[in-house]
Design brief:
- The chain has 484 residues and is an alpha+beta fold.
- It has a domain at 213-359 and 379-483: 3-Layer(aba) Sandwich (Beta-lactamase).
- The chain has 16 helices and 16 strands.
- It has helices at 3-36, 41-47, 82-89, 100-104, 106-110, 119-124, 139-149, 186-195, 217-227, 266-271, 275-285, 287-297, 321-327, 338-349, 386-402, 467-483, and strands at residues 55-57, 60-61, 63-67, 75-79, 132-135, 153-159, 166-172, 304-305, 309-310, 353-355, 360-364, 370-373, 380-382, 413-424, 430-442, 448-457.
- The strands form five sheets. Strands 2-1-5-11-12 form a five-stranded mixed β-sheet, with no helix packed on it.
- Strand 15 (430-442) and strand 16 form a beta hairpin.
- The chain is elongated.
- The N and C termini lie far apart (95 Å).
- The mean pLDDT is 92.
Length: 484
């Protein structure tokens, strides 16, 4: 064999070896990535080749599947009361990646979760029957929140303080997930929803942190009591009125100029929502102590999974004293979700202990056997002492009985709350956000609930926008439904 033929043979052999190496790489290393690619239509064909498992609320499926016509995608997802539960379920779409519970439990719901496989399934490679997701949502509380929010733009969350079960998670305006399920029509529906100025796809219950206003004063009060700055909620504070924070000439005024806010106790300061007291208190404590307490309640946690990933509520760092003063009344760069403020009330109502909030009670296989029980794994973390919690409960009850939160009063129940009206826009040029966070306990059954409501926008005149006027009635409707 001459030299030229030998060289050509070696080169050809190297090409064959390179091809074999590349084929092996694609098959064994890139194969899974290619198989999992959202653009791989085979995945969609397999996922929608048969009905999906369901999301269950109070024993009833709020999802379903229906046969399609003229498509290689044999089934598509359907929803019962889709707008009501959209903030919980999200959507499972033939065209887009699934979201919310549909996305988190997609493998369980389409039958590819390994926990569903029997020994025979493993040997034969057969796809298992899909499982189901049992939600903690109470349909009565969910409906009460949705109806009470009505045409308002906002979000609401209710939590059982003892168990951490999320009883309601509502965002308005909502959308019908069914509009996004069919590959043939999902594109136009997607464009329409994203073009809507009210952003119905935004989950305002869990994923839109906004300034919480005076509801944040509960966190500052908790920090002051735990630190020992004040011994109890009835001790008079050192609080000039009006208050000018150090380093600025800007005066921190109170909404009600006739309220008895000068040197007011924590109880009276919460009752009348005195800005001077909590602005001064935040400066006295210092931003680090307020931040530490906020983080105990859950602020600055960017991995708050319920199991849907909630957006982090924020208490900032690096503030000067005037900024710290404004952070004490829930302004400056402080933000919170309704979930976060419901957690604050839940911890106070539960004797200072916060049970991890969760949207899912159990996941099961197709036969109903439990694969995981989330209620059993709920953990409680002490946020404040039982003494501090009891004092804050008492002060919050005063707010509802004879303060800024009287619209939340419920016959036959003990109710505590805190209103908030947060500034919006430069120099408060836009409509303020209305907040209310609360707890209620039935005087007869002992049932308990903690609630937070945020109204981002409504048809009310600016002068009528307040936590008591807009948000408290929504919270009341939710608490009544929970205590039935």
């Amino acid at each position: 064999m001459n030299k030229t033929i030998r060289r050509a043979s070696v080169f050809a052999l190297l090409l064959v070896l390179a091809l074999l190496v590349r084929a092996t790489w694609v098959q064994f290393y890139d194969g899974k990535a290619l198989a999992d690619d959202n653009d791989n239509r085979r995945n969609a064909i397999q996922t929608y080749s048969r009905p999906l498992g369901n999301i269950i609320v109070a024993g009833n499926a709020i999802t379903g599947s229906t046969r399609t016509k003229g498509s290689d995608l044999a089934y598509k997802r359907t929803y019962t009361d889709g707008r009501l539960y959209a903030a919980v379920t999200g959507y499972a779409s033939q065209a887009y990646a699934p979201t919310q519970l549909e996305g988190i439990y997609k493998d369980l719901l389409n039958g590819t979760d390994n926990r569903l496989k029997t020994v025979l399934d493993t040997l034969t490679g057969k796809r298992a029957d899909p499982g189901n997701v049992l939600s903690t949502i109470d349909p009565d509380v969910q409906k009460a929140a949705y109806r009470a929010l009505g045409g308002k733009k906002g979000g609401a969350v209710a939590i059982d303080p003892k168990t951490g079960k999320i009883l309601a998670a509502v965002s308005t305006p909502s959308y019908d997930p069914s509009a996004l399920t069919d590959a043939n029509t999902a594109g136009s529906a997607w464009k329409q929803l994203n073009a809507d100025k009210d952003k119905p796809l935004t989950n305002r219950a869990l994923r839109q942190p906004l300034p919480p206003g005076s509801t944040f004063k509960l966190v500052v009060a908790a920090a002051a009591l735990e630190d020992g700055l004040y011994k109890n909620v009835d001790e008079r504070t050192d609080s000039p009125a009006p208050y000018t924070p150090p380093g600025t000439t800007h005066v921190l005024v109170n909404e009600n100029s006739s309220a008895p806010c000068k040197n007011a106790s924590i109880r009276v300061a919460l009752q009348y929502s005195c800005n001077n007291v909590f602005g001064h208190m935040a400066v006295q404590l210092g931003q680090d102590k307020v931040k530490a307490m906020a983080e105990k309640f859950g602020f600055n946690d960017d991995k708050q999974d319920v199991p849907v990933r909630a957006y982090a509520s924020v208490y900032p760092s690096g503030m000067d004293q005037p900024q710290t003063a404004y952070s004490g009344i829930g302004q400056f760069d402080v933000t919170a979700t309704p979930l976060q403020m419901a957690m604050v009330s839940a911890a106070i109502a539960n004797g200072g202990k916060l049970v991890s909030p969760h949207l899912v009670s159990q996941i099961t296989d197709s036969g109903g056997d439990v694969l995981q029980n989330y209620d059993d794994s709920a953990d409680a973390k002490e946020i404040v002492s039982s003494s501090t919690a009891e004092q804050l409960q008492s002060a919050m009850e005063t707010v509802v009985k004879d303060g800024t939160g009287t619209n939340a009063l419920i016959d036959g129940a003990t109710v505590g709350g805190k209103t908030g009206t947060a500034q919006h826009g430069e120099n408060n040029s836009k409509t303020p956000y209305a907040w209310f966070t609360s707890f209620a306990k039935s005087d007869t059954s002992g049932k308990e609930v903690a609630v937070a409501v945020m109204v981002e926008q409504s048809d009310a005149a600016r002068s009528e926008v307040s936590g008591n006027g807009l948000a408290a009635p929504v919270a009341k409707a939710m608490m009544q439904a929970a205590l039935k």
